[in-house]
Amino acid sequence: MTTTGTTLVIGATGTTGSRTAAQLAAAGHRVKAASRRATPVPGAEPVAFDWYDPATHAAALDEADRVYLIPPVGDADPAAIMLPFLRQARTAGVHRAVLLSSSAIPEGSPTVGIVHQALPDQFQQWAVLRPSWFMQNFTGTHAHAVSIREEGALWTAAGGGRVGFVDVEDIAAVAVHALTDAHAPNTDLVLTGPETLSYDDIATTITQVTGRPVRHHRLPYEQMRDRLAAQLPLEFASMLAGMDRAIAEGAENRTTDTVQRLTGRPAGTFRALLERESE
C-alpha cells in the first residue's frame, strides 16, 4: 500500500465515511474530512463541503489526488450534481475515485447507477462499492434501529427474503484498500457479510443477544411505502419500499468473498456486531 497522496472523504461524518476517514488516518494517510460543517474528525483535516453548494468544491479538492464519494442522501437524481463535480475533480488532479453505491443498484440504473456508469470514463483508477444492507441499520440512528428501541419491532415489505447484511467496518476496510492499494480495483465490488439472514432472523438474533424482544412485522408494499412516505419524499419512499419487495423476491439472497479477498480477513457476522456493541 502507498502512504503518499491525500484522500478527500466526502460525507466524513456519516456511516461509512467516518469509518473510512478514521481507518485511513490510523494507517498514516493524509485525509481531508469533508462535511457540511467541517466537523473535526480525529487524525484528519476538516473541510466544508456541500453537494448543493459548488462554492465549497474547489477548496475541498485542493491537493487531493483521490476521493471517496458518498452521494447526496435522498436525492433521486444524484448524477445531476455529481457528474459536474467528477469532471472538476479530474481537472483538479484527482486520479482515483471510489464511489459508494448499493448491491441493489446495478450500473446504469437510475440514481447512483448513472454515476457508476460514468466513473470509468472520468478516471483511469476507480472502484464502485456495492454493499448489501448495513448491519448498523439495526443499531444506529436508522429508522429500523429507532423502531427496535422504541417499539420492539421491525417493519418491512421484505417478507421472508434473505439479505447478506454487511458490517460497515468491513465496507470501510474495503474502501481503504480501494483508495490506497498500489493497483485500483477498476471494477464494481459487491460486499456482503458471510451469511444471508431474513428480517425474522435479525429480530431473533437481537432478542437472543440483547434480551430485548423484537418482532418483524411483514407489510405489503403499499403499506410500507406509505409508512416511509410519512418521513421521506414519496419518490424516495417508493424506491425504498420497492427494494424491500425485491428482497422478498430473492434479489439480495447472496454472499460474496470480496471482504476477505481484499482485506485478508473474514467478513463479520451480525451476532458478532451485536456482541461487540453490547460490551
UniProtKB/TrEMBL annotation:
UniProt xrefs under InterPro entries: Ergot_Alk_Oxidoreductase, NAD(P)-bd_dom, NAD(P)-bd_dom_sf
One Pfam family in the UniProt entry: NAD_binding_10
Domain NAD(P)-binding: 11-137
Stored Gene3D superfamilies: NAD(P)-binding Rossmann-like Domain, UDP-galactose 4-epimerase, domain 1
Coiled-coil regions listed in the entry: none
PANTHER family: PRESTALK A DIFFERENTIATION PROTEIN A, PTHR43162
Name this protein carries in UniProt: Uncharacterized protein YbjT (DUF2867 family)
